[in-house]
Specification:
The complex is a heterodimer of chains A (about 300) and B (about 300). Chain A contains 15 helices and no strands. Chain A has about 300 residues and is mainly α. Chain A folds into 2 domains: about 50 residues; about 220 residues, MetI-like fold (Orthogonal Bundle). In chain A, helix 5 packs antiparallel against helix 14 and helix 9 runs parallel beside helix 15. The longest helix of chain A has about 40 residues. By secondary structure, chain B is mostly helical. Chain B folds into 2 domains: about 40 residues; about 240 residues, MetI-like (MetI-like fold, Orthogonal Bundle), CATH 1.10.3720. Helices cover about 75% and strands about 0% of the residues of chain B. In chain B, helix 9 crosses helix 11. The relative contact order of chain B is 0.12. Classes of the chains: A mainly alpha (about 300), B mainly alpha (about 300). Chains A and B meet through helix 2, helix 5, helix 6, helix 7 and helix 9 of A and helix 1, helix 2, helix 4, helix 5 and helix 6 of B.
Chain lengths: ~300, ~300
């Protein structure tokens, strides 16, 4: 950096090029150094969770020695969890709720986004703003009144109560992303479809959904992640273990008494985090494109 | 919003006044039906509960009597709740500032790398954001565990004395912030990286020709170009952080001595666990004015951005 200012008294072009190169190399080294430090910090907790999950209880209880190495690795914790009907019950509840919520949210938001992006009607402008504002209302503001409402419907302690309320988490943002994607589709396409005699539904199914597929994938991943990771609503509404989804199940049921089964707890947390991680490994690019477009384009 | 431009469809061009009107009417009917589920979700599961919360917060504990602002008065009088207000604000502001700075720094560093390596590094740095926070916080909790803290073990190598992470109030506050920053910084990084990539290269070339240093390029080219996205991301994250629940619930559950409670966890404690639903509703409603102000600015930022693009 200081090299460029120093070269001002002798402005030779070669000199300038040389200092530029060294500046760039310096920047690259700084970049790698800070990224390595950041990666170590970012990855340390999951790595440590994994290390703990393959330790035996005896090794975890042994306080001497380096906690970051495993002396006698074992898969016992994973085996115990995967053969436990309670844990598999959590898993199944999560899968059921998530699949239903994703399906419902996508239908609601694609239909609504199409109408909001392409058909003018009374109040459509207000509704679009309303969708965005709804997205900004956090679940922690709503869970107490929803607790009363879900209770009065008799859906406390039932996964159906979760299916009912999770769309508040997913629908606003999915609609928002889809409005952005649909609005970016050129008008000529709908005109061509209208001339060919397509009705609105055909236009949506035959043209908009295929063309906006990346947006639909991004919105689906969002809905999936959010409903899989939802924590406030299940914590508030569910107290019977048999109806719990994974997040609250792992947090509340695997922690019992004064002696924690740390190995099993970590194994449970990692298994529960696995589905979103797998989805991201394969579809990360779609999701990031959708997210950043949703935030930057609006 | 985004449909502002797309809706300006010329409608008067089609021939035949009566059929056009019928067409428009039919179209708006279809459109209304298509948005009906959305309206049901927003109205029935967001707007109605929000209004209901206001009503609830003005009832007495057994919900038999209307007591006006009594719950709010009791809360403001209690020392514990004043600490909750302080802790929520302190937590949200500190965490968001740190997330924004770290996210900006990492995005900048990633931006320097050649395109091929970028993806790999980005994937690694995004891991915290991918794991559901309630679960990764369990891992942190275990790392902070007082008898056997693996972080303290690492610190001991550098001759740093053991830190009472979750036992001492100020350390507990810092721990909650650390976990939140760890979880949230990757999101900022992604947003800023996308914004950095959208800054035209010519601007930097022009700045270089004018003899700008690296710092000046950042100050006069990058920051002004990214101003809008920075403010939207910060404001948005402020809302999410302010309303955070899972990290506090798993890591400290409000302890030690109720000093790490934020609005959400305290509302949960009072409303659901202690069974005083009206007062719990009042606690969570304290978030509302702050969130409304932030939401106003987010909306303004997004609107301005949309206009810039048109």
């Amino acid at each position: 950096m200081s090299a460029t200012t120093a070269s001002r008294d002798a402005p030779g072009i070669y000199h300038k090029a040389g200092s530029l190169r060294s500046e760039r190399r310096w920047a690259l080294w700084t970049a790698y150094a800070s990224l390595i430090v950041a990666a170590i910090i970012m990855l340390a907790p999951p790595v440590y969770m994994f290390l703990t999950s393959i330790k035996t209880s005896a090794e975890i209880a042994d306080l001497g020695g380096n906690p970051w190495i495993v002396r006698s690795p074992t898969l016992e914790n994973y085996r115990a969890l995967l053969s436990s009907p309670m844990f598999m019950g959590f898993f199944w509840n999560s899968v059921k709720v998530t699949l239903l919520v994703v399906a419902v949210s996508m239908v609601i938001s694609v239909l609504a986004a199409f109408a909001l992006a392409r058909m003018r009607f009374w109040g459509s402008q207000w509704l679009a703003t309303g969708v965005f504002l709804t997205y900004l209302v956090p679940d922690t503001l709503l869970f107490i009144p929803l607790y009363q409402i879900v209770g009065s419907l008799g859906l406390l302690n039932s996964t159906w109560g979760l299916v009912l309320v999770y769309p508040t988490l997913t629908v606003p943002f999915c609609t928002w992303i889809m409005i952005g994607y649909f609005a970016s589709i050129p008008k000529e396409l709908d005109e061509a479809a209208l001339i060919d005699g397509a009705n609105w539904m055909q236009m949506l199914v035959r043209i908009f959904i295929p063309v906006a597929l990346p947006g639909i994938i991004a919105a689906t991943i969002f809905a999936f992640t959010v409903s899989w990771a939802a924590f406030v609503y299940p914590t508030a509404f569910i107290t019977t273990p048999s109806e719990m989804p994974l997040t609250i199940g792992v947090v509340s049921q695997l922690i019992r008494g004064d002696t924690f089964a740390w190995g099993q707890l970590m194994a449970g947390a990692l298994l529960a985090a696995l589905p979103p991680v797998i989805v991201y490994v394969f579809l990360m690019d779609y999701y990031i494109a959708g997210l950043t477009a949703g935030a930057t384009k609006g | 919003m985004a449909d502002g431009a797309t809706l300006a469809m010329p409608r008067a061009e089609a021939p035949g006044g009566a059929s056009l009107k019928r067409f428009a009417r039919r179209r708006s009917t279809i459109a209304f039906l298509m948005t009906l589920p959305l309206i049901a979700v927003i109205g029935g599961l967001v707007a109605w509960p929000a209004g209901y919360a206001i009503w609830l917060s003005m009832l007495n504990r057994r919900m038999t009597q209307f007591i006006g602002l009594g719950n709010f008065e009791i809360l403001l009088d209690s020392e514990t709740f004043r600490m909750v207000i302080f802790q929520s604000v302190f937590f949200a502001v500190t965490a968001v500032i740190l997330k924004a700075l770290i996210g900006f720094w990492l995005a900048h560093m990633l931006h320097h790398l050649p395109a091929k390596g970028q993806k790999k590094w980005r994937g690694m740095l995004l891991v915290p954001w991918v794991i559901p926070p309630a679960l990764s916080t369990l891992g942190w909790w275990w790392m902070f565990e007082p008898t056997y803290s693996s972080i303290n073990w690492v610190l001991a190598i550098f001759a740093v004395p053991a830190v009472p992470w979750l036992g001492e109030p100020w350390w507990a506050r810092i721990s909650v912030i650390i976990v939140n920053v760890w979880y949230g910084a990757p999101f900022f990084m992604i947003m800023y990286l996308a914004a950095l990539k959208s800054v035209p290269e010519q601007l930097y070339e022009a700045a270089a020709i004018d003899g700008a240093t690296g710092w000046q390029k950042l100050r006069y080219v990058t920051l002004p170009m990214m101003r809008n996205i920075i403010s939207i991301t910060v404001l948005f994250s402020l809302i999410v952080t302010f309303a955070n629940y899972d990290i506090v619930r798993v890591l400290t559950n409000g302890g030690p001595r109720d000093l790490t409670h934020v609005f959400a966890s305290y509302a949960f404690q009072v409303g659901v666990l202690a069974g005083n639903i009206p007062r719990g509703a009042a606690v969570s409603l304290f978030m509302f004015p702050i969130l409304a102000v932030i939401a106003f600015f987010v909306l303004r930022g997004v609107n301005r951005r949309t206009k810039e693009e048109l």
